[in-house]
């Protein structure tokens, strides 16, 4: 996060030690303008003589000899005195100026005396050109000195300026791109001048100022000079500026040169010397219209050798040779050249580690391998630069930090890989990238110059000469490859005019300027190219604008104390060291700060946040600093892999930032801040560096790398990045993350990251987000139009699917939705009288459309919309707006919004007979409501009748076969069209025949199909069978739908098949009847204790009266009184219930009967289908009881009739049981013979006949057969078994004939089975249907046992007629 502002932090006053106790939010003391150094004290008025103009003129003549700053200041004071009318004030001011001039003259004399004796090293090339350089400086305001590395420009030009008399009235400012260079160059010049460092030659970098009263030459970083512009726009403390290493074209250098271009016309006394080792001389000369003085080459010649990694021109080249092999071969080659250290240039730390390992494996003799890169610890850097004697050869593996004016001592050989990581700003991603690129020719020559300082050198380039020639001559200036937000902020702050007009040496890309402006707008610093309050605060803070924005937000969130620590940490190099050989141990030490950490009595859980880890580290270091002595503290830092100087730098910057924050009006918080609030403050500066985790490839995206699934993040503008592996969040990435840096190396990585919540983003990025709205629709709940909002920040969705009020977004559409949905369609919850009256009137008119199945009887929706639009003002877009308007309007025009029936009906509505579509229908003694729906394809389309569930079995289906009068003709027409073609053509045209046949019928007197079959058949003399009607071809709306409802009117079921509904809902019907008949039902009765049972019981369910049928139910050991839905279900159950109750109250005759049986009878009865004699005897008793009840006229319904039956049972049950038992014995005797004969029929040809006989016998004689057949039928059962015996004899003789008879019997037996299956659940066969079964048995006697006689004449036709008569 470097920037001109961040790198210019040095110029601000250094505050107190950062380890002092925490401060609360206190009011800042009033600031007073400080008195300039060494200013003469104020002179008391006393009896001073008046000051004449001549005296002032004399003072003015002495001013130009003073220092530039004092001359300007005192000159302005003299001008003020000349304008002063007050004699006393004028005298006092004049005396003060005179004293100040005298003091200033003493100071200028002291500075003049401080100029040391100047000597030049004759060995340096620049010494030979010092006269030419001096002449150029004397005669021109700007001079460009161009010379190769080693020429001595940096150290000798300040001395030439001193010799010219510069540096006395103002400082000779000498800028260096790096702090290390500023310090070492200052020391070198002071040494050559024979003075102490800090006297004639001083230096100033961030946090360190060694410039005294008599300092003539001031070495400093270019960031220091840049920062001084804020307080000294005219740079009056300098009479000469030397901009060194201008070839680097850093952002600071380009900005300073552009600023000087504007300043020089206003400061004709200011001299500017621009120096560089390799420089685009023509560009600078043209820009400043300045002369160029070129200095000859290096101190020693350098031989350049080209050794490409893979030399395609060499027929013996190894295609698999890599860079590590090439470096190893080059080291081996240089070792053969003689003594001297080797400097190897590599692009990054990883390559340095890989190369170190590769060279170590080669085991070069007496060779020490030393890494050199920016993150290296101080001790390891000291090993490289120390001028200590050493044995053997050193191989220094360095990044491009070694290209600067710093000299690595003892270097005679250079190996140049030709690549470097060069910071570039991606305009697409809006992030800073660090790709590995080929260096320019200038950089390559600079690297070669590193080995010509001490002796003849050799530079081996691991690329071809053609490759070198094809490279760009110079590296792109930083201004063309970095974000310009800081530059833009400073230019606007310094009021330097329009950005496009600023005289940059090389004008930046307008898109880069736009990006810088965009970043400042993102941070809220600019509003229409003017600084906002946030922007002014950012300009006052010596940090990158992003970090400054964090501090401003931290002040609002009450967490400035913590964010100051974070901002300072992000502005300096990471103090945590990771030595290559101890990386694991270092990571373990540093990991402590990623979780909970307690210091000073408070605990902060970093939760994996890299930002909060800095806060924990800060608190730990401060705590240890207070407890330990200086040496022990340093040892602790070293043992815990913390860089002492970087910690100091962090503390110094924190102190400076704290003071700058106070000056900007920001206040520290007294209590510990919540981690979320800290992160929100940090987020304010990183809005374009947030990411949403990509949880997997979308469908169809098969080319996406699944290995990164769940670890890759979607960033701003489509960027995709991963969290840097060193972060604790890398192993388990959160859903949302923010990062202090997005840096592209092998891929785009997020460095210094933390988990965030998406809801934090929108409040901070309200001016940046894009909002899109989709699916605008009416919301009944909100009484307003709403839309689905999607909020994105640089393409990242931060809000998805949020419903928002659409009225403020699109009032016109919202008004239309309100009118259409709320007022016209009625989708609104309101109490307005007109609304409900209009809805009722509209629904009434629309109901006629549903009944008549037409859409032309009511005015269309647009007519109603127009009605409301004419009357409701445009600002009414929701229910809330309407309520507010109507509250006032209804007082003046209460009928303004009322509908009338005339306006709603069309002319066609007059031709519709409403009586043809009744509201109710009579069926089964019930009046059932009808509803209509004209919704083709919908479940409710057509006519629907509501049937109470309790009355489901009572409803007569006949009226519903006729449909309502308005649809009856359409129904009959459709039915005719379902007939087969040979019949259908007899009734064409179908509508005419439908009208004709309906004229012959009386609606509701019979099922419609019965009448149609009869009358249509008569009309054409044909017979229409029931199966001819293809009812499934009928349009659905012509079949009445039965909607079964409970007592509360809730739908239970619906369908068009009434019988199917009855079967399905039988349990529900029973439940309803039980609930309704609770006053009559009873359980567990063992005697008649319930008075008289009514044959019918009226039940009120809702608005209907339903008939229930009470009766008894046999429960084995007791009986229940229950209400049945139909008499058909009740009667057989009641008969059994009365029988059970009588048997419970009558002594069992079983013992008496058993006593009367002889042994033969007992033997015959022992083999029975019941499984035991006891079960058989129970069956006989039950059959006898059934017979007695039937003989007495049926079951009892009251206590009196029950008593008669009870007496009958007491008198005759035993005798009747004995009679039944004798009849059963007769049946079993024949059954035994049949079973024996069947066991002998084993021939396969007889199998079908045997199976049919077995099924017949099992049906006749099974468990409970006596009761099932009845006492009067037992003789017939014995006869049927005797007929089976005769059938068996005939089966043996002629199986084919038996099969023919079986086929004939199956015709009627199948029809009988179908009738049984059609019975509703719980309904037993009636006497007529049971008789069909015995008719079929008589038919078997007639077919199989002829000449045995049947009880009555029987045939297949007689049986079929009996079945037909059942209907």
In short, what is this structure?
The protein has 1367 residues and is α/β, with parallel strands linked by helices. The protein contains 50 helices and 39 strands.
Descriptive account of the structure:
The chain contains 50 helices and 39 strands. Among the domains are: 53-112, no CATH class; 117-297, Rossmann fold (3-Layer(aba) Sandwich), CATH 3.40.50; 302-427 and 435-480, P-loop containing nucleotide triphosphate hydrolases (Rossmann fold, 3-Layer(aba) Sandwich); 496-683, Four Helix Bundle (Hemerythrin (Met), subunit A) (Up-down Bundle); 830-911, no CATH class; 914-1071, no CATH class. Helix 7 packs across helix 8. It is 45% helix and 15% strand. Residues 1-40 and 698-707 have low confidence and may be disordered. The chain has 1367 residues and is an alpha/beta fold.
Judged by helices, strands and strand pairing, the structural class is: alpha/beta
CATH A-level architecture of the domain at 496-683: Up-down Bundle
Low-pLDDT stretches = 1-40, 698-707
Estimated helix fraction:
40-55%
Question: Mind telling me the CATH class of the domain at 496-683?
Answer: Mainly Alpha
Number of helices: 50
CATH topology of the domain at 496-683: Four Helix Bundle (Hemerythrin (Met), subunit A)
- Beta-strand portion reads 15-25%
Mean pLDDT: 86
Name the shape in a single word: elongated
- Main β sheet profile: 8 strands, mixed
Enzyme class: hydrolase
Region (Disordered): 1-50
Biased composition (Basic and acidic residues): 9-26
InterPro entries: AAA+_ATPase (IPR003593), DEAD-box_helicase_OB_fold (IPR011709), DEAD/DEAH_box_helicase_dom (IPR011545), HA2_WH (IPR048333), Helicase-assoc_dom (IPR007502), Helicase_ATP-bd (IPR014001), Helicase_C-like (IPR001650), HrpA_C (IPR024590)
